[in-house]
């Protein structure tokens, strides 16, 4: 059984191993001149992360093969406040969160399955 101190140490170690930076963006809806709905994305919250094409769960890989979509795994620090309504900007990539592949009592990081955002 892990103690709270053990788990906190593991989370600290995990976060120290995240080499990239993600900016978390949230949408604001508005109306266009023609009455349509528009979204603008803003956000200044930056967190450490790791972007990888590895570790994507099989069901997403199968779905991606059918749809011609590349899915990415983005590892974020434990407790990062993100939902599928957010976007992540990592370097020149803007990614939509399509699901999560983490959870449980001993979670040390948040793993988000993402795809390239379409504007």
Please provide a written account of the structure.
The longest helix is centred in the N-terminal third of the chain and has 13 residues, at 4-16. The chain contains 2 helices and 6 strands. It starts with a helix and ends with a strand. The protein has a single domain (4-116), classed as Thrombin, subunit H (Beta Barrel). The protein has helices at residues 4-16, 58-67, and strands spanning 20-31, 37-52, 71-77, 87-90, 93-100, 109-116. By secondary structure, the chain is an alpha+beta fold. It has a 6-stranded antiparallel β-barrel with strand order 1-2-3-6-5-4. The protein is globular, with a radius of gyration of 16 Å.
Draw up the topology in text.
Blueprint: H1 4-16, E1 20-31, E2 37-52, H2 58-67, E3 71-77, E4 87-90, E5 93-100, E6 109-116
Antiparallel strand pairs: 1-2, 1-4, 2-3, 3-6, 4-5, 5-6
Number of helices: 2
The low-pLDDT segments are: none
- Give the termini distance in whole angstroms: 46 Å
CATH class bucket: Mainly Beta
Instruction: Tell me roughly what share of residues is in helical segments.
Output: 10-25%
How do the strands line up in the largest sheet? 1-2-3-6-5-4
Largest sheet: 6 strands, antiparallel, barrel
Number of DSSP E strands: 6
């Amino acid at each position: 059984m892990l103690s709270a101190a053990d788990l906190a140490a593991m989370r600290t170690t995990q976060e120290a191993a995240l080499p990239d930076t993600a900016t978390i963006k949230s949408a604001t809806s508005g109306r266009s001149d023609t009455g349509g709905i528009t979204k603008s994305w803003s956000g200044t919250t930056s967190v450490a992360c790791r972007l990888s094409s590895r570790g994507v769960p099989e069901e997403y890989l199968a779905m991606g093969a059918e749809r011609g979509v590349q899915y990415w795994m983005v590892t974020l620090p434990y407790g990062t406040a993100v939902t599928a309504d957010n976007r992540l900007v990592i370097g020149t990539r803007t990614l939509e969160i399509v699901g999560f592949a983490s959870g449980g009592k001993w979670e040390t990081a948040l793993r988000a399955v993402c795809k390239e955002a379409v504007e």
